[in-house]
TrEMBL record:
<dbReference type="InterPro" id="IPR029058">
    <property type="entry name" value="AB_hydrolase_fold"/>
</dbReference>
<dbReference type="InterPro" id="IPR022742">
    <property type="entry name" value="Hydrolase_4"/>
</dbReference>
<feature type="domain" description="Serine aminopeptidase S33">
    <location>
        <begin position="53"/>
        <end position="216"/>
    </location>
</feature>
<dbReference type="GO" id="GO:0016787">
    <property type="term" value="F:hydrolase activity"/>
</dbReference>
<dbReference type="Pfam" id="PF12146">
    <property type="entry name" value="Hydrolase_4"/>
</dbReference>
<dbReference type="InterPro" id="IPR050266">
    <property type="entry name" value="AB_hydrolase_sf"/>
</dbReference>
<keyword id="KW-0378">Hydrolase</keyword>
<protein>
    <submittedName>
        <fullName>Alpha/beta hydrolase</fullName>
    </submittedName>
</protein>
Length: 248
């Protein structure tokens, strides 16, 4: 677990990054929220899905064992958002901040407005073994709209290659298998959903689904935005997060 603590705070945020991404992608956003304690889970070298899941639970248990004063927020993006929902369903979170979230990534043809087909994810897993750079590059191309690419937003991402090949496969296996839809009724904490309306990876329909099924959810749509709704918009997101949490 990585630690990035700025000063005494009444709240702690545990950050969970997306597939193939180091948590450095959150650095600017965290710097704009100095009143919070910031910690993150580094699962870039997880060898199996089970170890990846265990790492997130171990981190939460560590924070609870430290008897931190004040609430624990879990912030997750994409795969990290799915992991955050899993933790919240077990009662581990006082609040959730979810970027490009879904309660189930793989979907049937009838639900293609909310996720991807399982066959595509299996193809990615096979591709990672053969040419991981090609798979990661193609995945990044899908993260942004054409206008976002023209604005060079993609250049703000950390370099490709920070995850091990086993971790990439483990993350894809979790995206294939984890299903939190049936557990959403167990999540009673406040949830801030930040979702790009043009997201090609976790479609906006998945955010609408979460909004409809979570009792204390607030949806903050980012229009004309792809899969990375916080990148390049950190000041706006930090203000919204702060305002939302102060209301709770």
């Amino acid at each position: 677990m990585n630690s990035m603590i700025h000063r005494e705070s009444s709240s702690t945020i545990l950050w969970l990054s997306g597939w193939s991404m180091p948590d450095a992608v959150f650095d600017r956003l965290r710097l704009l929220l100095p009143e919070y304690q910031h910690l993150s889970v580094d699962y870039r070298e997880a060898e199996t899905p089970e170890k990846m899941l265990l790492q997130t639970e171990t981190a939460v248990n560590y924070l609870r064992a430290r008897a931190l004063h004040g609430p624990l927020l879990i912030a997750g993006w994409s795969l990290g958002a799915l992991l955050a929902l899993r933790l919240a369903a077990k009662g581990f979170a006082d609040g959730l901040v979810l970027f490009a979230a879904t309660a189930r990534f793989t979907r049937s043809k009838e639900e293609i407005d909310r996720g991807w087909g399982d066959a595509y994810v299996r193809k990615m897993m096979a591709g990672v073994v053969q040419d991981r750079l090609a798979v990661e590059s193609k995945f990044r191309q899908l993260m942004f709209t054409e206008a976002e690419w023209e604005a060079n937003l993609g250049e703000s991402l950390p370099p490709i290659g920070s995850w091990t090949t086993p971790a990439l496969i483990a993350g894809l296996q979790i995206l294939r298998s984890e299903e939190i839809l049936s557990q959403l009724q167990n999540i009673n904490c406040p949830v801030l959903l930040v979702h790009g309306t043009e997201d090609q990876i976790c479609p906006y329909g998945a955010g609408l689904e979460l909004m409809a099924q979570l009792s204390k959810a607030k949806l903050f749509p980012i229009h004309a935005c792809g899969h990375v709704p916080f990148l390049g918009r950190e000041e706006h997101i930090a203000d919204e997060l702060r305002r939302w949490w102060h209301e709770q």
